[in-house]
Amino acid sequence: MRLITVQRRFSALLICCMLAGLLTHAVYAEAGGELAGHSEGWPSHFHFYARNSSSMSREAVEQKPYDFSFVWMSDTQYYSESYPYIYKGIVNWIVSHRQDMKIKYVIHTGDIVDDAGKKKQWAEADKNMRVLEKSGIPYGILAGNHDVSQRKGDYRQYRRYFGERRFKKQPAFSGSYQNNRGHYDLISAGGVDFILVYMGWGIGEPEIVWMDDVIKRYPGRRAILNLHEYLQISGSRSPLADEVYERVVKPNKNVFAVLSGHYHAAKQLINAIDDNGDGVPDRKVYQILADYQNALKGGLGYIRLLQFSVKTNKIYVKTYSPYLDDYNFYDPVDHPGKDEFALDTDLTPMGKGS
Question: Count of H helices and E strands in the chain?
Answer without folding.
Answer: 8, 17
